[in-house]
Amino acid sequence: MTITTDAETATTRMTDTGLLILRIATGATMLQAGLIKAFDFGTAVGFMESSGWRFPAFGAFMVTAAETLGGIGLLLGALTPLAACAVIGAMVDAWAVNVSADAFWSQPFNVPFLAAFAAAALLFTGAGAFSVDHRVFGRSKVSAKAAVGLLVIGVAAAVVTWIALNGTNPIHVTSPTG
């Protein structure tokens, strides 16, 4: 029999509350980004087309779906590991858009960068007790191996998507010429 103290219970509640706040902030940010693209899809397609992306409608659909569904998942704490993986993939590519025209270190770390790291934090910590995952599945996080695997999948999906649809390497030590 395990005996928990009031201090341990309070610490757990504080952690779960912190995870809830992080999920709401990250999920709402991603949901807003996805819905902006969904309600003005032509602009998202046009941006990708003007940036030289192949299959711009497909690319815009993928990012819109990842941001919208990932945002909903994080917001509710539903299928959090998969939602975090989708957000990581979308945000690595969004960050790459910001740094692809210059040396990667010359641009400030911005919203996509922070959102990707917030999603990665949720991937490793889990959704917390105030989540659909906890209520429905009885647990709010995955194993360390699964978290690392999903992180690698999210980053790999971003890299493969960028190279396949954009055709370039977004990470430059110096400013690209031309």
Automatic annotation (TrEMBL):
TM ranges: 20-39, 60-91, 111-132, 144-165
Topology relative to the membrane: Multi-pass membrane protein
Keywords recorded for this protein, A-Z: Cell membrane, Membrane, Transmembrane, Transmembrane helix
Cell location: Cell membrane
Pfam assignment, any one: DoxX
Location, primary (coarse class): membrane
GO cellular component: plasma membrane
Family to which the UniProt record says this protein belongs: Belongs to the DoxX family.
The protein's name in its UniProt record: DoxX family protein
Taxonomic source organism: Mycolicibacterium alvei
